[in-house]
Amino acid sequence: MKRVSSDMPFTDMRFHLQRQEDNLSNIQGRIGAQTRLHRLRDDPMAASHAVRYESYMNRLERFERNTQYAMEHFDNTYNHLNSTNEILQRIRELAVTGAHGIYSANELQIMAIEVNELLKELVSISNSTGPDLRQAFAGDKVFTEPFRIVEGRIDGGIDTMITRVEYRGSGATRSVEIGDNMFVNIDLGGDEAFWAERMKIFSSVDATDYRVQQGGAFFINGNQINVSVGDTLPSIVAKINEASVSVRAYIDPTTRGLVLEGTSAHLIRAEDREGGASVLRDLGIINGNMVNNAPNWNNQAIVSGGSMFDMVVRLRDGMLRGDHEFIGSQGIAGIDLAIGNITTRIADVGSRKERTEFAWQRINKQIPDITAMINREAGLDMAQAAMDLNMARFAHQAILQTSARILPPTLLDFLR
After folding, report:
1. Which of 193, 293, 305, 409 gets the highest tally of CB atoms within 10 A of its CB?
2. Residues 12-33: pLDDT tens digits?
3. CATH H-level superfamily of 54-196+306-366
4. Which pTM value belongs to this model?
């Protein structure tokens, strides 16, 4: 049996009033957040779908920013490489002209001075920075000038001239994510872009009876290659060739020593891992690990393969000597190697940029689709929400007015 008391009308009024206020607050919250899922219990299934879509949307927006940064970086690199190619073409024109044999030593000296100035511009490009003030060709050492000039006096030259250019950067390993588990390498190291010849390192150490005495690893171009106790030279050669490095290893049939040969024009970087086996030192490839990326080749090893700057320096020195035969043979050949490498690197950067552009287009096609999915699950019909809000306000006012009429008089009413 339901008991009726004087508190019952007040209790019922408060219950219905609180329920209406809760409904009004919920509608206002939806309008304020511009979503129909103000609380998860409004539609749990739709909320779970919307959360997944929004998470994917956040990733797409991050990928879009990554692709934009990568494309800008590629444009900057591409422009520098094209400028380098134009300078090399001009140097080749001078080399072909000087190789005719009809110019005097003084005229060749004038050509050499122009080549020297173009060499300085090549070094300036190699040490250029991007809009973010990072070195474009320093690899991972983006705040370190990658190429260092060594100057000195050259026979027949005017004042001091560049005698060699040393690379002090590191390997290019930076990459950006342009999709789920999809990465593109954005850097091009100066040890690749500004090289000309394929390097070869011939060890003079007979390693016929060599055995690894301690487990460890060594690095070729930044890639770790592990060795175990008892490994012989043939097994080490096999591990190098199986690794994903642009270096081919083999055994010299004459000296029975290790030979490393680049499969493309680039600077080979080799180091032993600290605290383990000193494989490359024992095999006579290096003296010790690099300090500031300075060359660390064994003094007894035969190292060949020069950079683009080496080719230009050799050509300039040949012009200063008045050596027409050298200019027409080795001089032009060296510049052709540099041009061949730089055009390959231009094509490489262009291909990476093209892939990134396709990824950017794909992402920008997906973003509207995912936005539509989010709106389908969590979108709010503002017209309907406005109607619901007005109805809730009207109902709230009606409850207040009705309650004022139903509630019995109290002592306060008599005191007024």
Report:
1. 193
2. 666 666 666 666 666 666 666 5
3. f41 fragment of flagellin, N-terminal domain (1.20.1330.10)
4. 0.79
